[in-house]
Amino acid sequence: MSEQNREPGRTYDQATYAVSDDENEPLLTEKRSDTVEPGDALPDDLTRDELTLPNPEEPELARHYTRLSQMNWSIESGPYPLGSCTMKYNPPVTEDVAADPNAAVHPDRSADSIQGTVGLLAGLQDYLGRIGGMDAVTLQPPAGAAGEFTGIAVARAYHRANGEDRSEVLIPSSAHGTNFATAALAGYDVVELPSGEDGRVDMEALEAAVSEDTAALMLTNPNTVGLFERDIEAIADVVHDAGGLLYYDGANLNALLGRARPGDMGFDIMHYNVHKTFATPHGGGGPGAGPVGVTEELEPYLPNPRVAETGSGYELVESEDAIERVHGFQGNWLVLVKAYAYIARLGDSGLADASAKSVLNANYLAGQVDLAVPYGPFHHEFAATAGDAAAADVAKRMLDFGVHPPTTNWPEMVPEAMLTEPTEIESKQSLDDLAAAFDAALGSTAEERHDAPSRTTARRIDQTNAARDPRLSWQALDGE
Amino acid sequence: MSGSPYAPHTDAETAAMLDAVGAADEAELFDIPDPVAFDGEFGIESRSEQALRRELSGLLAENDDLTEFLGRGHYEHYVPSVVDSLSKRSEFLTSYTQYQPEITQGFLQALFEYQSMLVELTGLEIANCSMYDAATALGEAALLADRVRSADGEVVLVPETLREGKRSVLANYVDGAALRVEEYPTEEGTADIDALDDAVGEETVFVYAETPTVRGCIEPNLAGIGEIADAAGALFCLGSDPVALSILEEPASVGADVVVGEAGVLGLPASYGMGLGLFACKEEFLRQVPGRLVGASEDTEGTRAYTLTLQTREQHIRKQRATSNICTNQAWVALRAAMHAAYLGADGLVDLAEDCVTLAQDLAQDIDDIVGLRAPVDDRHQFREFVVGTDQPAQAVADDLEAEGFAVHVIGQHRLQVCVTDANAHAADDLVAAFEEVAA
Questions:
Q1: CA-CA distance, B331 to A358, in Å (whole number)?
Q2: B439, B371 in Cβ contact below 8 A?
Q3: Dihedral of CA B400/B405/B407/B408: which sign?
Q4: Which of A22, A37, A69, A274 to mutate to test the interface with B (most CBs of B within 10 A)?
Q5: In this structure, are residues A335 and A287 in contact, taking their beta carbons and an 8 Å threshold?
Q6: Does B354 contact A at CB distance below 8 Å?
Q7: What's the confidence (pLDDT) of residue A17?
Q8: Residue B364 and residue B263: Cα distance in Å, rounded?
Q9: DSSP A227
Q10: How confident is the model at residue A311 (pLDDT cuts 50, 70, 90)?
Q11: Coil, helix or strand for A403?
Q12: A458 inside 8 A of chain B by CB
C-alpha cells in the first residue's frame, strides 16, 4: 500500500534557546551559586564547613526548567512507539485525583484513620485481581522489576516451605533484561531457553530444560515479538509437572485486556506494569508501580502488610509466611491512585477497546511500513527488521521526521530489529505520519542516516566518549 | 457500548483500518486459543471524568483530617507551587527513559543536575539517578559491598533501632547473595561505638549507620564508625537525606563509602511512604553502581550534550550479570527534588536544616515542661523528631491526641515519637496544648 520514499507528514523542530555554540542551556551552577556556612543551631563538630549550590531566583528557576522541558520529547509531543514500553496518553484527570489533599497522608497513620486510602488500595487490589484472573494482589512493588523480584521471592518462599531447594529459573532468550537480572538477584541460576523457529517457546527445548531444579519459568505473553504463546496450556503443564511455578511478566498485558487473563492460562504469579497498561505517566523513567498477583495457594507469601476488607471497613493484615518486604513503606502510592482512576475511567468496555485498538493499530502500521516483519500474527507490537540498514541509524533519522522511533536492536532474534508498539492512542492519521517517517528514514541514504539527526536539539551524541571518560556531575566538568 | 476515551478512532477510520489489514473485525486479529480466551466481564463500570472525581474525592475524604507530627523515615517539607507546576509540564511528566538522548536533553540535564547536587551534599564523586526509596537503596548498597569486597564475609551490620521496613527490605535483597543481616547495639538513639567495635569481625562486609537516626538523633561519632568499618575491610554506608546533609558533617569527610537515604524529603509532599532512593558512592565503585547514570558528552557539532552512560552495568545489556535488576526508577521524583533544592539554594537549604534542629528542640522543651512527659528521651542533638517518654500508656495518650486532631507515633509502652518541620510547625503550639489536656 505504501509508496517508497513518501514524504513524512511533518518534520521535527524542537525548541532550542542556545545561548552559545557550546551548550543548549547552561547548567544551574553556571548561572548563579552561593556558598553558605551552617549557622549555630548545632556545635561545629557536628556540621560541615560549607555548602555550595545553585541559587536561582524563582523566575530564573521557572525559565530554566521550562527551557529544559522544551528540549524533551513526551507522549504529548507526538508518537512514542517504543516496543514493550506501552507509551499511552496519560489522562490529566488522574493527576488531579492524585493531587487531592486528602491523599497526602503519612504511612504510619492507623488504618482506622485513613479508610479512604486503604479503601482505594483495596479497590485497586480487587480490580487488578479481576483483570489478571488472580486470587490475591500486593500493591507494594514500586516498579515492574520490583514486581518480578517480589514474584520470584514468593516462588522461592513457596519452594522453601515445601522443603525444596530449587536453583534454576527458566527464561526465554527473547525476554526482558529485567527477568534475567531479577532471577540472579534472587539467587537463582538462569537457564536461557532458545526460541523456536516460529518465534515462540520451543516445547522440546523447554522439556529438555525443565527439571526438579526448576523454580519457575518467567514468560511474557504475548511475547516480545507480539506473538501469543499458543501452547501456553502445555507449557504450564510441563512446568507444573516438574513442580515449578509459572511467572507472567505483565509488560505486554495491554494486548490482552478483556481478551485473556494470565490466571486462566495457568500462570501462578504475575506482575502488572501500571505505568504501561494503566497509563500512569512514565515521568522520564519512573515512578511506576509493579503490583503482583498470585493464586490462592501463594497468597500467604505476599509481602506484609496487605489490605483486607472487614465488616465495617478496611484494615492492614499480615501473614506469618510472608516474604520480606520490597519497599520501605507501601510502594508508590500516588502512582497507584492514578492507576485506579484510569481503570475506573475506562471500565470493562474501555479496557477491552484499549486492547482492540492497540492490536488494530500495530497491524495497520505494520502494513503501511516498507519493512519486513518476520514473526506473526502479532498483537500490540511488531518486530520489523531494518534489513540491510542499521536499525539504530534508521531510528536516529526518524527523529528528524517528527516522531520518536521504536525500540531498536531488540529482541535479538530479529536482525536489526525495530520493535514497534503504537498503542491504542494513535489515530489513523497519526499512524500514517508515523509510517511516512519510517519510510522516509529508510529511503534516506546511508550517509544521511549516519549523520542524523540534524533537526533536533542535540546532534548525534558521542556515546563512546561518554563511557570512556565519565563526567557524571558538574564538578567533573570543572575547567571545561 | 463505549470504547476507551483515549482511543481516537472514528467508526469510519476503524473500518478503513480493518479493511487495510484484511480483517472483518478486531477480534479476528487476536490469536488466542479458545480454552484460554476470556469471555467474561470484569464488572468494572466506566465512569465519566466528573463521576470519577466525585467518587474518589468522596472516598479520600474518608481519611480523618489529622495534623500529622509523623516522621520515622517519611518526612514532609513544604513543596513550593513552582515545583508542582514545572514538574507537571507534560514534556517532563509524560516522557519515557532517555533512550534517544538527542530529543531528551532536557530531562537528562535535569538528572545530571540532580546527580551533581548529591555529589555536593555527600562529597562523594558518584550519584545515580535514583533508587525506589531509602530501603531499596540500602539493599542495593549491601549488594555493592558484596561485589566490591574481596573478603568472603557474609554479615551486614545495621543498628538495632533500624526501621523494620528497611531491615526487611535489606534482608530480602541480600538473601540471594547469601548474606545475613545482624544488628549492633545503640545507646541514646545512636550507635554504641564500643559494642559496634565488638560486633564487627572478619565476616563483616558492610556497616550501616544513620544520621539523623530513626529516633531523630544526630550521630556524634560518624568518623569513629567509619574507622571501625575500614579497619575490618567493610564498606561504611551512611544513611541520611539531602536536607540533613545541608548542615551535617559531609559524608566523605567521615569516611563514608556509600550514602543512601530518602531524597524525597525534597519535592514530595506526604505521600503514604512513596520515596526517592538516594544513592551515592566513591568513584572507585563506578563500574559496580546500580541504576542509571547520566553523563556529559558532546554531539557531532561539539556542543555539550547529556546521555545515559555506562549502560553495560544495566539489565537491558548485561542481563543476569547486571549490577541490579532496576529499570523504571523514580526519575520524576528526582526531577522534583532537584527543582526544590534549586528553589531553596544553599542558604534556603541551610535555613531549613537549622529549623529542623531548632523546631525539634523547642517543641521537645515545651513537651518536657508538661507533667507526665519527658522529651527528648535521648541525650543527643535532635533533627526534626525526638522520642517522648510518657507516664501514661503511650497508646492511650496517642489515641487521646488523635481525638484532638493530631497523629504521633507510638514506639513503645511509654514512648511516643514526634516529628516537626516547616510543614506542621504552625500547629506545634496546638499540639502542646493537646498534650497538656491528655497527658496528665
A1: 27
A2: yes
A3: negative
A4: A69
A5: yes
A6: yes
A7: 53
A8: 25
A9: B
A10: confident
A11: coil
A12: yes
Q: All domains of chain A, ordered by start, with CATH?
A: 92-345 (3.40.640.10)
Nearest chain A alpha carbon to B144: A185
With CA atoms as reference, report the closest residue to A19 among A75, A79, A67.
A67
Q: Which helix (H) or strand (E) holds A269?
A: strand A269-271
CB A86 within 8 A of CB A251: yes
pTM of the prediction?
0.97
The answer to whether residue B307 neighbours chain A at the CB level (below 8 Å) is yes
What is the ipTM, given to two decimal places?
A: 0.98
Of A71, A156, A233, which is closest to B36 when you measure between CB atoms? A233
The Cα of A384 is separated from the nearest Cα of chain B by a number of Å equal to: 16
Could you give the CA distance from residue B363 to residue B420 in angstroms, rounded to a whole number?
A: 8
Stretch 292-321 of chain A: residues touching chain B, C-beta under 8 Å: none
Read off the pLDDT of residues A349-378 as tens digits, 9 standing for 90 and up.
Answer: 999 999 999 999 999 999 999 999 999 999
**CATH T-level fold of B81-338:** Aspartate Aminotransferase; domain 2 (3.40.640)
Other CB atoms closer than 10 Å to residue B195's CB: what's the count? 14
Strand runs (DSSP E) across B165-234, as ranges? 180-184, 186-187, 190-191, 204-210
Residue A413 to residue A116: CA distance in whole angstroms: 48
A184 touches B at CB < 8 Å = yes
Residue B210, chain A, CB below 8 Å: the answer is: no
- What sign does the dihedral A444-A450-A454-A457 (CA atoms) show? positive
Q: Between vectors from CA B50 to CA B49 and to CA B51, what angle results, nearest 5°?
A: 95
pLDDT at A4: 41
Q: How far is A443 from chain B (nearest CA, A)?
A: 21
Give whole-number Cα distances, A377 to A70, A416, B252, in Å.
39, 20, 56
- Rg, chain B, Cα only: 25
pLDDT of residue A1: 36
CB pairs under 8 A between A and B: 666
Q: Which residue, among A68, A252, A276, A468, would best test binding to B if mutated, counting the most B CBs under 10 Å from its CB?
A: A68
Taking only the tens place, the pLDDT of each residue in B75-88 is 999 999 999 999 99
**Mean pLDDT, chain B cut into blocks of 10 residues (440 residues total):** 90 98 98 97 98 98 98 98 98 97 97 98 98 98 92 92 98 97 98 98 96 98 98 96 98 98 97 98 97 97 95 90 95 98 98 98 98 97 98 97 98 98 98 93
Residue A49 identity (one-letter amino acid): D
Query: Strand B258-262 vs strand B235-240: parallel, antiparallel, or unpaired?
Result: parallel
- Between strands B180-184 and B277-281, the pairing is unpaired
Q: Which residue has the cell 566538568?
A: A477
* A218–chain B nearest CA distance, Å: 14
pLDDT given at position A3: 40
Q: At B407, phi and psi to the nearest 5? A: -115, 130
Spatial contact of B331 and B130, defined as CB atoms under 8 Å apart = yes
Q: Which of residues 327-356 of A touch B (CB under 8 A)?
A: 327-335, 337, 340-341, 343-351, 353-354, 356
* Closest among A83, A217, A48, A324 to B251, alpha carbons compared: A48
Position A383 pLDDT exceeds 60: yes
Contact B175 A345 (CB under 8 A): no
B67-78+347-439 belongs to which homologous superfamily?
A: Aspartate Aminotransferase, domain 1 (3.90.1150.10)
DSSP H or E segment with residue B360: helix B331-368
Q: Which of chain A's residues have a Cβ under 8 Å away from the Cβ of B245?
A: 48
The overall average pLDDT reported for chain A is 95
B171 touching A (Cβ < 8 Å): yes
d(CA B60, CA B62): 5
Virtual torsion, Cα B329, B333, B338, B342, nearest 10 deg:
180
